[in-house]
Fold each of these.
Amino acid sequence: MSDVLRLEAISKTYGKGGPAPVAVLDGLDLTVARGEVVALVAPSGAGKSTLLHIAGLLDTPDGGRVLVNGRDMTGLPDRARTEARRRELGFVYQFHHLLPEFSAAENIVLPQLAEGVAPRAAGARAAELLDRVGLSHRAHHRPAQLSGGEQQRVAFCRALANQPALLLADEPTGNLDPATSDRVFDMLMSLVRDTGLSALIATHNHQLAGRMDRVIRLGAAG
Ligand SMILES: Nc1ncnc2c1ncn2[C@@H]1O[C@H](COP(=O)(O)OP(=O)(O)OP(=O)(O)O)[C@@H](O)[C@H]1O
């Protein structure tokens, strides 16, 4: 079986050894299989961001193992983790975090150049991705010239630019009004499905969660 992501017995406590430790994750197991789209539903404070940071190699657990594409990332030096993050993972956040001084296309080209892709090929990939989300006509606009939904669609393209093995998304449409959220989420899902991408997508929206292959609930409610 090939799991793109495997979290084994993950535990995390903030402020360990201090006066007010907060145990957030305690022996958590989670897998995302190749091609699978998994929803992560959690009440506020249950540890969703903590989990995504650990899965995204941005934070380390106190105990347990993180495997990406079968490779144990636990205990790797920072540099190797950063490299794995850039090569294998794509991120989408609630807010787009696009570079304001660059155009939509440039925001998708830049991460590819950082990975050594030739400028012409990077440009072609950006154009193809923008076309898929219906934004070819906005390629040369800067983020401030785009609507919230358009900005988020560009952020999806950027996350997919280097063809990651796994997409991690934290409330990717949480910042948008409900109608726009539905439309933009549809685009994300078809982009993910068309490219056979695996994804772990945190959302408070149960309707959106229900459209994914599997729902994982964290914490008591959810
Ligand atoms: N650096 C930290 N030090 C101490 N406690 C922390 C720290 N970061 C997070 N926490 C606590 O850990 C718990 C989980 O935080 P986390 O950000 O993972 O929650 P979340 O599920 O993403 O919440 P939300 O949906 O509201 O963003 C919360 O109770 C939070 O207060």
Amino acid sequence: MGRDTRPRKSLGASLHNQIKESRVLMVGAGGIGCELLKNLVLTGFGEIHIVDLDTIDLSNLNRQFLFGMQHIKKSKAIVAKEIAGKFNPNVKLEAHHANIKDPNFNVKWFKGFNIVFNALDNLDARKHVNRMCLAADVPLIESGTTGYNGQVQIIKRGETECYDCNPKPVPKSFPVCTIRSTPSQPIHCIVWAKSYLFAEVFGTSEESTPELDPTEDSENAQEIANLKREAEELKNIREKMDSPDFAEAVFSKVFTRDINRLRSMEDMWKSRKKPEPLDYGKVLEESKSIDASISRNDQSKWSLAENFTVFADSLKRLATRMLELKATMKEGDTPPILSFDKDNEDTLDFVAASANLRSSIFDIEIKSKFDIKQMAGNIIPAIATTNAITAGLCVLQAFKVLQNKLSEGRMIFLAKSADRACSSETLAPPNPSCETCCVARLTLSADITRATLNDLIKILRSQLNYNEEISVLTGNQLIYDIDYDDNVNTPLKDLGFQDETFVTIVDDSDSDDDEPPRVNLVIAITHDPEMASDQYPISEPEKIEIQRKPRPKPEPSQDQDDNLEMHDVTESRKRKLEDGLTVLEDASARMRQIVPEDAGPVQKKVKVAETIVIEDDEAIMID
Ligand SMILES: Nc1ncnc2c1ncn2[C@@H]1O[C@H](COP(=O)(O)OP(=O)(O)OP(=O)(O)O)[C@@H](O)[C@H]1O
Ligand SMILES: [Zn+2]
């Protein structure tokens, strides 16, 4: 039997031919990516480009089956191409060991693909690919998994929701005072060790860490000022990294003196147990007989003396590394820093031991190094089966896209459920308030070495009828508004414009009853170095109509809210009868949001309607 016989038989000749002629892009060759690439290659997609910026790590091997021990430290994209290429010699594969945000992956490049598949693990890259696919008008199959949960979504400009149509949850942050003064749970001490102590001793200062939220403690200004002073002292100790007393200096500062200062604030301990400071000499004495190799025992909960040993030993290892980096520093280089990495033993040992020492001071439960690794790395174990099912669903959705049957495309959710692992809903239309996809678009060419911001603003006023009240942004950065005209005479190149830069024009005029402001205008400005020097440095825009923003919906009254709830319950009951399932609980479980760092889009209430059937033992169809 020829290689094509089975796919041709199960998919039909027409779809199979389309697949063979398709040029697709897969971004990310990790957990989902390895499974997806295998599917794409075996299905016979004509040309597949793989982009991944990372190299293979030991911890990837349990689920990223294209990789083996011999590939550790090699490029994921290149190894994935080599290994998956052997599955089907008829497929053309191209690997890019690079960040998808690199400027050479521009809109023109994206336009060269029939479908883009996201197999990523972070919001930032997902949002970038979403924007590029919208700009290039290429369909995107977005996917994400967390533990047993998975999600697949088709995104098509003007026809479906985009990745940004639903707001995404922001990562959890903790009030500074809980972390720095009044911890009550192991996670508080872990965040302290990772985002404060480690950052102050080896990395950048705490101000830049998203896990600490100073705003929640604004009424506690005095204490915040004290904490700042404490951090300052730690910076001075950092300068003595090469001294034999370094461990004692750090220990006595954070586990003795800082704790004594906290104890002196009587008000703080009226309803809490006072922390008990540690004494360096005493703990050192107790730990004399303990070998530093105890750090390899990551499953048990270390004693105070064991934690002390790991603290002192890992601090020494990290300090040595830092001093080596400093020694190779050239003049003018920015001073080196170390970053916390859950997969790096030195940084993990330091964070685990420091967190536990602090826990013992505040009478909080000690955790094993293994548990601390999960908590510090926000890890939800990746499950190979979830990735495999999700990757399979991505390809089934790609068939709908190729056949131009978006009305049959589904937003699919996977969950661990005794009833049904896989459920779905129809694809939702774009959210009219979405500032990423419900925008007007324009392409202009410019000689960015000559064209100034003012040249652009003049075009907006004269050709596109904007008034004074506009803001101009590149990405999230504001470069112009009515009160900020510092950049108007600066050439675009000096404002960071490259071969292709997107600017967003926001209509800031007040919404009146007749006319709400216009939707955002996204202009792709491409550099044209050949533009004649006597010509206006920006090309003439085509005439486009820029829609008005939707009017904000009035807040629902209490009565309406009640009705809504009634309606939901009735709907759920109805479905329960139709499906013979306990949908009410199930739906709320699916409504849980996937952890942002590792997620696809926000999950919503879903309709249970999908079935997967195996036909003639040959093809899996989703109906
Ligand atoms: N901006 C980007 N450009 C290219 N590839 C990216 C980008 N951001 C993330 N990736 C890749 O997406 C893949 C996501 O895979 P996955 O979620 O399995 O993560 P992982 O890093 O392999 O595993 P883990 O995080 O669990 O250790 C990774 O290989 C990562 O390198
Ligand atoms: Zn959108």
